[in-house]
Specification:
single chain; mainly alpha; 125 residues; binds zinc ion; 2 helices
């Protein structure tokens, strides 16, 4: 007579290690709590990178936030340039196409507070 199948115990439903063993089959040991590998395949305490590993972060230039911020700024600049180009083409027929800055008037400390009228480009008035 065949033994009746036992109901699956929680112990048997726990996630398995799955690491490749020497014969090439997946390891069937239960994974250590909070890890994906068993105690023999890297699940031991003190092994592996800590959760939320910050070791790779040097300066934050390539974090997702920094990249998204740079893209946002680039898109804004692109939109500004497109708008400026469209206005130069339509409005200013004789407008200079060079990107050189106009010579800035000399400012005294007194006048540094209030913006000069020359500082505001024609398209922004
Ligand atoms: Zn294992």
């Amino acid at each position: 007579m065949r033994k009746p199948t036992l109901p699956a115990l929680p112990m048997h439903q726990s996630p398995r290690c799955g690491a490749r063993t020497r014969p090439g089959t997946p390891c069937r040991q239960p994974a250590v709590a909070g890890k994906v590998r068993c105690r023999m395949h890297g699940g031991t305490d003190g092994i592996g990178a800590p959760p939320g590993n910050q070791n790779a972060l040097r300066h934050g230039r390539y974090t997702a936030e920094a990249i998204a911020q740079r893209r946002e700024v680039a898109a804004l600049l692109r939109a500004c340039r497109e708008q400026l180009g469209a206005q130069q083409r339509s409005g200013g027929a004789g407008a200079p196409q060079t990107r050189q800055r106009a010579p800035q008037p000399q400012r005294s400390a007194f006048h540094a507070q209030a913006p000069l009228e020359d500082d505001v480009p024609e398209w922004a008035r």
